Amino acid sequence: MNLSPSKPQANFVPDVDPLRALVNAAFPEARGAFDCTPMVGGASTRRYFRVRAGRGTAVAMFVPDGPKPEEVVKGDLSSRRWPFLEVRELLAERGVDVPKLYGEATAQGWVLLEDLGNDTLASYLVAHPHRREELYVRAVTDLARAQAALSELPAGSVVSSRAFDEDLLSWEMHHFREWGLEARGLVLAPEDRAVFDRVVARLARRIASLPRVFVHRDYQSRNLMVRKDGSLCWIDFQDALLGPRIYDLVALLNDSYQKFERAFVEARLDDYARSVSLGAREREALGREFDLVTVQRKLKDAGRFVFIDRVKGNGSFLKFVEPTIAKATASAARLSDDEDVSALSETLARVFSR
User: Fold this and answer.
1) Phi, psi of 169, deg, nearest 5
2) Does residue 313 sit in the same domain as residue 217?
3) Which of 11, 24, 305, 343 could form a disulfide with 317, with the two C-beta atoms 3.0–4.6 Å apart?
């Protein structure tokens, strides 16, 4: 099995004729009326368009890479149904709120979906900051329910075919070294590189050994849509896989795009613990898992932001590099009694001080 990231595609104007056919089928009352407007995208190669057909609206997703994953994974998915569609169907069947599917023309790169509006959790909170606690309590409890509902997966599920194993976790940490350090001129001295490699291998082994559950992989404020009734709809779940129960909580509560006081994070971890009926000792272990996975996840994110700038030509994430590293550093400080984390922290401190 090869381990490689998806590659960026050249910009081009997609053929909208297959989309037009999907829209006509989904909105026959529009009698062929069709308007398609590009929407602001994120870090992926996917492109989104808001479609208006008479009084109806929908969102069209164009995926030039087809079934290729947005994040690095093992294996070749080219011969199976798009992971986005497979995972969407699985989540919908298990009671998770996901966009409705109006039609698909995957051979031509198109999927037509429910129009959820423009209110991601991130943008909604800018206008309604007083609802932050309410919505984050909901996000945490939604996640706990989803993990329970997805505790057993269908035979052959794409989710169960991939996992945060040692190889993937180690690759992500070295992705940080390559892009978060070396690409910015911060090269590890030979002795520090030896420590880094050794510690990364041990941390990857430890995290990979944690019990595995369904993981969205990027469960954060830009990937949750706020509906008019205040419920949250999941998007960007195509890279779902198996991993630690804490992983999506790290993505949510140490979100690179949000700032939280530690008391807020601890309160949400308490909410999760109550939702899954953890005792006091288990809750304490959950907190240590949270900080351990934060170190790994946030360093990966920092490296990814630089990669997106240097390779994909999108510099909008660079402002999050240092705050993201700071989140990893803060979690590492809370694990000062952990030999591996301390060794990594000391190594990075030497690099950053040069």
Assistant:
1) -65, -40
2) yes
3) 305
Residue pLDDT, tens place only, 310-350: 999 999 999 999 999 999 999 999 999 999 999 999 999 99
Q: List C-alpha distances in Å: 209 to 59, 70, 84.
A: 39, 24, 27
Per-position b or e across 130-141, b if 16+ CB within 10 A of its CB: eebeebbebbbb
Strands 101-105 and 56-62: unpaired
Environment class of 24 (CB within 10 Å of its CB; exposed 0-12, middle 13-18, buried 19+): middle
Q: Are 115 and 48 in contact (CB under 8 A)?
A: no
Looking at the fold, whether 259 and 288 belong to one and the same domain comes out as: yes
Residue range 226-265, pLDDT digits in tens:
999 999 999 999 999 999 999 999 999 999 999 999 999 9
Residues 209 and 89 in one domain: no
Euclidean distance between CA atoms 333 and 348, whole angstroms: 13
Residues 260, 126 contacting (CB under 8 angstroms): no
Of 83, 114, 145, the last residue of a domain is 114
Let me know: does 137 contact 216? Beta carbons within 8 Å. Answer: no
CA atoms of 90 and 96, how far apart (whole Å): 9
125: domain CATH number is: 3.90.1200.10
Question: Which residues does residue 226 pair with via DSSP β-bridges, in sequence order?
Answer: 232
* pTM for the whole structure: 0.91
Alpha-carbon gap, residue 11 to 174, rounded angstroms: 29
The total number of structural domains that make up the chain:
2
The DSSP-derived string for 228-275 is TTS-EEE---TT-EEEETTHHHHHHHT-TT----HHHHHHHHHHHHHH
CATH number, position 10: 3.30.200.20
Quick one: 279 exposed, middle or buried, by C-beta within 10 A (0-12, 13-18, 19+)?
exposed
| Structural domain that includes position 222 | 121-352
Rounded to 5 degrees, what are φ and ψ at 52?
-120, 125
Structure tokens at 289: 């898992």
| Residue corresponding to tokens 């990857």 | 204
Task: Give backbone dihedrals phi and psi of 19, rounded to 5 degrees, phi first.
Answer: -65, -40
Work out the burial of residue 209: count CB atoms within 10 Å of its CB; fewer than 13 is exposed, 13-18 middle, 19 or more buried: exposed
